[in-house]
User: Fold these one by one.
Assistant:
Number 1:
Amino acid sequence: MGQPTHARKQTDWWRSAVIYQVYVRSFADGDGDGTGDLAGVRAKLPYLAELGVDALWFTPWYLSPMKDGGYDVADYRAIDPAFGTLAEAEKLISEARELGIRTIVDVVPNHVSDQHPWFRAALAAPPGSPERELFHFRSGRGERGELPPNDWPSQFVGSTEPVWTRLPDGDWYLHLFTPEQPDLNWDHPAVRQEHEDILRFWFERGVAGVRIDSAALLAKDPALPDLVEGQDPHPFVDRDELHDVYRSWRSVADVHDGVFVGEVWLPDPERFARYLRPDELHTAFNFSFLSCPWDAGRLRESIDTTLAEHAPVGAPPTWVLCNHDVTRTVTRYGRADTGFDFAAKAFGTPTDLAVGTRRARAAALLSLALPGAVYVYQGEELGLPEADIPLDRIEDPMHFRSGGTDPGRDGCRVPLPWAADAPYAGFGSCDEPWLPQPAGWPAYAVDRQQGDPFSMLTLYREAIRLRPAFGDAPLTWLPAPEGVLAFTRADGATCVVNLAATPAELPAHTELLLSSGPLDEAGRLPQDTAAWLRA
């Protein structure tokens, strides 16, 4: 039946890995203070090993004021006390590796926290000082400098807030996200040197890879001109000089046999592929597939485009259904609009969780059958829906910077349920979790799903265990009726997904390896169901 994924020996492990995203704050609370921590993760390593994943990607665990969920880093060489200590992180990395699980950490090179020593020194220094050259400080426009230096928009979709903040001394500083996240000046050699040192720091502690947040935003036009839509080059997105940064980073990674995955949101496939050239990043997230509606034609187009844009540079594609920034898959697939768009997020959007769950199960088999690496966001393997967070408990700055119209991202970040009958569904033993869990959360608990052969958790475990059957072979599409996706890979391993309204006949096969739901009485594949076959 195949070896567990985490037991496979593979030099280029990252090319076909199953990588589990850990949002530490919401994974498991080891000390009972209501916040997830490294002790909680360490205690759950056997669970992750049994799931069969190859690596864990940790969202930022560094010292941070948590103004943006840890993506406002004050010190990359210290673990935030809410999560634990550096010594604990080192133990976690080592203990996971003993179980065959690698560790990927997150870096946020576009900006730092306003509590970072560099920015505190810049605020204490006068205009024009060397300390301010590490950031983007400028005089304002207008007769008295009362207007921002340019008209750039916030990178929080829907935000009406400016990206410049004025100081009492008259200078303005740039922050594409929140005022608590000042943008670094990547033309400054000290900024480049510091980040290469940070990479070395973590590679030397045993991490196998680094995920790069907002990877296309670092470089800015030194003149900081106004934004002219459609003008090339863009003043702060996907600038050519950025590739020199990643070539230098690649030389650091290669010394340590480390890998990079970039968060690169770009509509141009050719521009996207440049980041994946052999001397730059190893992989990048595939947001086309993540945001794609539950539609056979659209999904096939996304898959074909993704494979085509990666082929010229020899990079493996990545597949992801959900992460810590987007609506949970079960909820999204149960809506009338099954795609994802930050600009379309709104309170009170109705969903059919039964339909969404059926589709999410099928999508899990689809994504895990495709060539390349797969990312699984914590809780997806439990079929968790998006939670409705009470207004007085919302913490996400995206909500506040939208003027309260965007529900924010907290709904996909609710602490996980581990034990149905324990306080707070087993997340922690003492204090209330930092985000409230919905009333129905215990029904999704790990201990409820462990022994259930039809649970989402069992499906994910089986799919990850059987995934090696597809091998490293490319994808070949098979003839299929409208609304049905069918493809084969190594040794006749075949995936069929029925998105049509009527049951679909399965192609000839010798074995049904796995299905996301039962076949009908005639052995056909029902609507919104996927099956893995051996020809």
Number 2:
Amino acid sequence: MRKNLFTCMGIAGLATLMACNQGQRTADASQSTADILAANVDSTVNPAQDFFEFANGGWIKRNPIPPEYSSWSVANLVQEELYKRLRTINEQAIEKPTDDISRKIAAFWKSGMDSAAINAAGIQPIADQLKAIDAATTPQQLLQIAAEQNIFTGALCNVGVGQDAKNSDAMALQFYQGGLGLPDRDYYFNTDARTTKIREAYPAHVAKMLQFTGLDSTSAKAAAQAVVQLETQLAKSSRKLEALRDPEANYHKMPVTALTKIAGNIDWPAFIKQQGITSFADTIIVGQPEFYTTLSNAIKSQPLDAWKSYLKWHLINSSASQLSDSIANTDFTFYGTLLRGQEKQKPRWKRVLDAEEGVMGEALGQLFVKEFFNANAKQRYEKLVEDIRGALKTRIENLTWMSDSTKQKALYKLSKITKKVGYPDKWKDFSAMQIKDQSYFANVTAARKWWHQYNVSKLGKPVDRTEWEMTPQTYNAYYNPSNNEIVLPAGIFTVPGKRDEELDDALVYGYAGASTIGHEITHGFDDEGRQFDATGNLKSWWTKDDETKFNQRAAVMVKQFDGYVVVDSLHINGKATLGENIADLGGILLGWDAFQHTEQFKKGEKIAGYTPAQRYFMGYSLGWLSHTKKQELARRVLTDVHSPAKFRVNGPFSDVDAFYQVYGVKSGDGMWRADSLRVRIW
């Protein structure tokens, strides 16, 4: 995963996509003459003491976090440009709709921006679903409702369709743990002051939201306590963040009858059918069987009224952003302000664009790439992929700790990595999506139904390996081990206010080559990706001795990152972030190796006072230009497999010998690590 500045949609572990976040470039005549790397520097900081603050500190001092955000970064700068372009596209679609896609864009935008109609409707868009929950008199009736609502709310558990990790040519129905209202199971149990404050505030928030469904304050308070008790029971059997990163341990293929044996209080064939899933081979993949046993036991042990309150809570929580301002703002107070430190919501037009991106972002992407990602840019980054691939080939060949047998298989897997750059060759067909002149809630619901059916329809069909899981304008990228592919959207290569042709190779090899391309390719060989073979199957291709040596070297990185304190007493979780940390270090090494072959590196001419070698490391740091509120940092430590931005610079740089040479780092400096403690994997 490249970056964690935005959240990727999907069930964790289904596609096992390893993704990270970034942007797209346009020219701004007023900015185009300034060197962006030099402009961001804080010259009062010694790069050998804290390189992140040196490279980015000047920008951080001049750019406070806006009140509607929990962090502010280069990704936000890219997104601000994108917001303006997409708003223009939407407004033009209303004025002059030219085809089915533009009419859908216009209808969605119009419904989302009609705050008067949304506020007048209040709770009514979900009133029928609330009545159905109230009308249930048996657990079986309630489970039927839960199955139907699960498509929209994610209540009870996560069900989805993805490639079979051990048979990448087949799509499989997959069951994953879920059903919690707090961001991660650790929020229900950790005892640090910040997490405790959130957990203690949670019941009151649930009660406030349930009052919108018609409960009085006393009843809502009692219902909220029942919801939290129920969720805590589910959380006890939910695996920790680091445990979810083991693909073998989270793979349990079984017939549906086997799930019935371990979770027999739920009629699973009926549950599946009620989600509109009929064409699957009676075989499913269950990620965490113990969670489903606990869920089944709770169906029997928890009172029916507790389950009703639980389903109501998850219904209104998942719908809040499409309901009235009073509901949406109440929900934001907890999830936005308390959890993330945002002082206020984004303006409605940005929130609607965010929702539209999730609904039909690829349709918008078709318009985006025509204007903002030309053939020259595509060619530049396709070549850069091959430069980085070549660098890893050389590194694998020169490894001293790996046997020749494993090396040959690693080289074969590397040669088979597919690159997707810029935008898909084939676009999704949104013609059947029922976006039209109706309420905002109805349009979002129609889109969710379409996506559910789109994914369900993949069962029993050949895997479409041409499909993209991100839109072209996304400031992000990913490695998909089941396809053994790296996917690099056009947006990820953006430097705000700059045309691609304005960027020197040092910046590009650091910013795009290291932190994006090299990072994603290395994911194929990190602690998780290395378990998949060249054809995308979860199948060991390592000798036992080589596997042991890899794990020993990876353990050095776990210990390094475990030692970093992020906020309060919260440390980085070295095991949970290991894959991303390996990919960061690998990307830096590969980008550096490839950059040394460029004419700019060989000439050694300075730009804005910095050598090409110095600019390479500054270019990488540009990708992590950001600062974040404490609340959001704490949330990420518990929920994110990425380390915070500062540690994605200072951490891996401390393991790179070339960095020491370029910046004259010596013993006693803040960036120094003894040679014996430096991570040596790829």
Number 3:
Amino acid sequence: MPRTLEQQLEKSLQQNELMATSIIKLTQQLKQVNEELTLQREQNQYLLKQLFGRKKESLSSENIHLNQTDLFEDDPSFNCPEQTGTQSDEEINEVATIRRHKKKGHQKEKIAHLPVVEHLYREENCTCPQCASAMKEIGKEIIREEVVYVPARLENHRHVRYSYSCQNCQKTGDTFIIKAEVPKAPLNGSFASASLIAETIYQKFQQKVPTYRQESHWKWMNFEIKRTNISNWHKETADYYFEPLVQLMKKHLLKEDVLHADETTFKVLDSERTKDYVWLFSTGRYADKKIHIYQHGPSRSSEVPLAFLKGYQGYLHSDDFSAYSKLIDVTSVACFAHVRRKFYDALPTKEGEKKSTSRLAVEKCDAIFKKEKELAELSIEERHSKRDQFIKPKLDEFFEWLRTLNPMVKGKIGTAISYALKQETKVKTVLKDGRLVLTNNLAERGIKSLVMGRKNWLFAATTGGARSNASILSIQETAKANGLNPRSYFDYLLTHLPNQKNIPLEAYLPWAPKVQKDCR
């Protein structure tokens, strides 16, 4: 009997051990499931925020849910007194008065530079209603001024050349004929003038109007132009005139000490790749010559920046994509806006969680950006000195604070912490030179011009077409960066480049004095 009790007790203990082991395993599985569920919820909330939330990456006001756009965001001074209970009637009246105030003469300043066409209204045979005598004009007044839109029109400009012969030489049997010199057209055998081609380029690359919509536009103007003709004009002018200019701009770009780079996808129908890439290389914010050069990759491999920046030695702002790390003799500068964005994406979506780690990180980043903005207009030397005084302590404090956090925590906050600590050295590179900046926004804004066009154009039919697009965008964005009207600049180039005689190509760059004078 005792033997049986011992066996039962031993069996019971074994069962207890098995149950304890099972409980531990189930607890671990439950913990894992809860972690996965938390990550899924976080991802869900992030996607909802991307779809329906605020696109502006600023911290929302205290009474607005992070996933919801504020109905009165453009007018934060508008608050309902019944809801807030913090504004007196005098304060509300004062706000209303400020909002209604208009700057005197502002409207006249806006239209002062426009040509004036006067419409005069006179009374004919004006006689006095009392004595029927003729009345004399004693004055006039301006009743209103209005801006009138004059629609564009097309004209057929016929170029007629005259020939001349020497009548005296004809008597001796010799005949000399001289023909008047005629300016060359941009494209031989085409009815397209420089202004017409420039307008189609402006419509596509600045206004983002694809060629098939331009086709219908010209048809409404009683002149049919096929979309294939427009595409051919762009490709041929890019090959003949714009690409040599882009290569010359590239030489100037590679002489700069500070550059920015970014890349994005672009679909090319005849490409073997699923996705092609267009790269952008730009001069720095404080460069004397503002240059943006787009290049059809076509891949995203390191071969593209290695080939483009061959021999370059200087600073390169980028998003720290791995392809840039292969560059030799190039000092990488990380984008602090990307660091901030990681924390912004990790912001909690529940109301009341205003002191979360992610929010605190975004606030610290904003404080650094605010101080940097105050230094933007200083000289290079002053900015370098002031950064050591004001920006360096804030950056040091920010990264020291991050090191006190756990980067192994799962979710977006852990990713943000790890990413920020990884970028610390490259972010702090900005302290080495006053010409450097905290972000790569300059290149990101430049690449956005292509992204906006891509939504409308959808694709390029050929690789040659993609290269032409890159050349034209390079000319356009560089012209805009140097204060030129892109339409006027394209017209200028297509008028003068076919007829240049012993004039160096340098004279047609966007910062050339004559170009600045004629194309603004």
